[in-house]
Design a protein that fits this description.
By secondary structure, the chain is of the alpha+beta class. The chain folds into three domains: about 80 residues, Roll (SH3 type barrels); about 70 residues, no CATH class; about 140 residues, Four Helix Bundle (Hemerythrin (Met), subunit A) (Up-down Bundle), CATH 1.20.120. Helix content is about 70%, strand content about 10%. The strands form two sheets. Strands 4-3-2-1-5 form a five-stranded antiparallel β-sheet. The chain is flat. The chain starts with a helix and ends with a helix.
């Protein structure tokens, strides 16, 4: 069989066109794809999207803007439409490929810093390679392949233990101090913003990280005053809240007691002088009992809520005290071993304290013994 290379090329071209056409049909009828149509309005507006519903008077079209970040379905009166262009399957496929390629533009390498390895893998496999699988012969395939090469190269550098800092690659161990310093400055800026908003407890969480940074004495010196001020302001606010909540709990407890007293009175049997109780009186009494139950339930609910809020504030205060004392504990000097003179002085003070305590507890017996000794001494002197 004699077949020239040009015939093979022609057949290959026809085969690719057939595959592209088949792909276009699949994309056109496949679920979840955007089958683009063009709707031209009489005011000159041109809309490209998917016509999702249509009747004699109106038309609904699904639209995407800003590379798919903004989506809406718009209903249009047909009286406002100048022309509707319904695309062929090939046009739809071309539009869909362009639409999906534009979505890929959101993935950009950061010129100043690197990403985590997992993010590189996610973008390469789930975005770029997925696009090539769906559109192997699209005019955008070469650009996407170039993106894969660039992203894979950065990924390999990160896996090898490098980081990108201010646009320059360096071993992670060498860049660690600079990264820590940069992170510290970011935390300080965020904390200052939170303090200006009165969100002292959130600022404390960030400043605590800076205060304990090793090898960053200048950042620590900047963070300590902010940390102390934030702790002081947060303590003042929480104590105010606590005082108010203590008052709220006390008031809620009084309301509960009043509601219980009212319920007891409502449930007490009515005193009738003679004859049976009137039906209207019994109904009124039952209504009063129901209302008293309802008031008691409401008062107990308010009490539980007030106690819960008080417990929360007290827990936050306790946490704040621990946070405020943590830097002092970390920065405290190591205790020095005690010298012998100091130990002897301490032991002497302890012995004197024990003697004084014994005298205080036995003063009556000591007094009697003293009187007896004085009496015997006076007799001996006279003799």
């Amino acid at each position: 069989m004699n077949t020239s290379p040009s015939k093979f090329a022609a057949r290959g071209s026809k085969f690719r066109r057939a595959c592209w056409g088949l792909l276009a049909i699949v994309l056109a009828i496949g679920p979840g794809r955007i089958n683009a149509d063009t709707v031209k309005l009489k005011d000159g507006t041109v809309l490209e999207g998917n016509i999702t519903a249509e009747d004699a008077a109106t038309l609904s079209i699904y639209l995407e803007f800003a590379k798919g970040t903004i989506r809406q379905t718009r209903q249009i009166n047909k009286a406002d439409i100048a022309e509707i262009i319904r695309w062929t399957p090939e046009q739809r496929a071309q539009w869909q490929a362009k639409h999906d390629y534009e979505k890929l533009q959101r993935y950009r390498l950061d010129p100043q810093a690197n990403y985590m390895v997992e993010y590189y893998d996610q973008v390469i496999n789930n975005a770029f390679r997925e696009f090539l699988i769906q559109y192997p012969d699209s005019p955008y395939a070469s650009n996407v392949t170039a993106k894969i090469v660039a992203w894979q190269a950065e990924r390999d550098l990160v896996v090898a233990g490098n980081v990108k800092l201010h646009g320059r690659w360096a071993p992670a161990a060498e860049a660690a101090p600079q990264i820590g310093r940069q992170r510290g400055h970011q935390l300080l800026d965020q904390a200052r913003g939170l303090i200006s908003e009165g969100r002292y407890e959130s600022a404390i969480q960030l400043l605590q990280l800076v205060v304990h940074m090793d090898g960053q004495p200048d950042l620590v010196s900047q963070a300590k005053p902010l940390f102390d001020s934030a702790c002081q302001q947060a303590t003042i606010l929480l104590n105010r809240q606590r005082q108010k909540l203590v008052s709220d709990v006390s008031s809620a407890e009084q309301r509960v007691e009043q509601a219980r007293h009212a319920l007891n009175e409502a449930e007490a049997p009515p005193q009738q002088a003679t004859g049976a109780a009137h039906p209207q009186s019994l109904a009124q009494n039952q209504t009063a009992v129901s209302k008293a139950h309802s008031d008691l339930d409401a008062a107990e609910t308010d009490l539980r809520l007030a106690k819960g809020r008080l417990d929360d504030v007290e827990l936050r205060l306790e946490t704040l005290y621990l946070q405020a004392s943590a830097p002092l504990i970390v920065q405290a000097p190591k205790p020095q071993p005690a010298t012998r003179p100091a130990s002897s002085s301490s032991e002497t003070l302890d012995t004197l304290a024990d003697i004084l305590a014994w005298v205080k507890s036995n003063w009556l017996a000591i007094g009697i013994i003293g009187l007896v000794l004085l009496f015997l001494l006076s007799r001996f002197v006279k003799d």
